[in-house]
Amino acid sequence: MTRGRRSAIPEWQAARLVAAHDETATARTLVFDIPGWPGHLAGQHVDVRVTAPDGYTASREYSIASGEVDAPPPDLPAMPDSGVNVELSVEELDDGEVSPYLVRGLEVGDHLEVRGPVGGYFVWQPSQTEPVQLIAGGSGVVPLMSMLRTHAAAGHPSPMRLLYSVRGPQFAFYAEELQRIAAASGGAVTVDYVYTRTAPAGADRSVGRLTLEELSTLALPASASPTTYLCGPNSFVESVSQWLLALGHPAECIFTERFGGA
Ligand SMILES: Cc1cc2nc3c(=O)[nH]c(=O)nc-3n(C[C@H](O)[C@H](O)[C@H](O)COP(=O)(O)OP(=O)(O)OC[C@H]3O[C@@H](n4cnc5c(N)ncnc54)[C@H](O)[C@@H]3O)c2cc1C
Question: What spacing in Å lies between the alpha carbon of 141 and ligand 1's midpoint?
């Protein structure tokens, strides 16, 4: 399979927060204006750098949640105001250094620095016609949302299924939009949730972590020859990728992105 464009890592540039909203009680979606943004593919990420008043800096990686944005034609100079907004969604880690600031400290109008887009491996492009299985653990849904938004914007007919493991419904990112995308897709897009700690009233599954047996019924089978994109905390990605291999999915059809953690 041909993977996406991989450019040299660009320079740090200023990004201005132009909008923000709570995604859940512990996560926030941030919309940045980044002048001269060169466009990005669904699944890519940016490096974000914040600087304290004493000059101390810290950088972290954050996936782009917004759908694919075309690169400007090569003969056009970068515009000072791209008019393109780049959306990130950040989950706050209690003991984290950067995420609490992004979720609770950054205000609309503030600037920070970004570098990107980064990554040409974990990407989905509308030219792909095979069925796609997306599997998210927690905030690992962010780059997969970019793929779903790109799929929806293209009116793409191929199946794209999301299996989303999350602590409870109140922690699920993009819940209403996911419902809308699935409803408008004519059956191409489906969304299944696995709740690990709290389930909605009347749920037919008791809470608990995803298992190999559930994966075998909720995800597209190897016989459908899907490409699978798997993203989340290290331990989640490790377990699920092993299960996918055990279920007969070829390693070259499994793309993983690890967000860190245990
Ligand atoms: C390619 C890539 C894309 C990412 N995209 C996103 C995204 O879209 N949204 C998002 O919220 N995060 C994303 N992350 C994670 C993000 O880069 C940071 O690691 C995270 O925000 C924690 O940073 P922090 O400074 O708050 O915590 P730190 O101060 O770095 O760490 C605090 C503690 O939390 C642990 N920890 C670090 N990261 C995680 C994690 N992801 N899960 C659980 N424990 C962790 C550390 O081991 C440490 O014990 C992404 C990571 C990568 C590599």
Answer: 14
pLDDT surpassing 60 at residue 7? no
Residues 97, 167, single domain; the answer is no
Q: What was the pLDDT predicted at 1?
A: 43
Distance 137 CA to ligand 1 centre (A): 13
Name the pTM for this structure. Answer: 0.94
Q: Is 98 in the pocket of ligand 1 (CB under 6 A)?
A: yes
| CATH code for the domain in which residue 177 is found | 3.40.50.80
Q: Is ligand 1 within 6 A of the CB of residue 47? A: no
260 Cβ closer than 6 Å to some ligand 1 atom:
yes
User: Considering the chain, what percentage of its residues have pLDDT values greater than 90?
Assistant: 86
CA atoms of 229 and 222, how far apart (whole Å): 14
Checking 214-217 for CB contacts under 8 A at 24+ apart, the result is 215/135, 215/163, 215/240, 215/243, 215/244, 215/247, 216/247
Question: Could you tell me the residue range of the domain that residue 28 belongs to?
Answer: 13-118
Q: Are residues 141 and 252 in the same domain?
A: yes
Beta bridge partners of 192: 163
- Nearest-CA residue for ligand 1 atom 13 is 62
The average pLDDT across 71-94 equals: 75
Residues 6+ apart with CB under 8 A from 159: 131, 132, 188, 189, 190, 220, 224, 226
pLDDT at 73 over 90: no
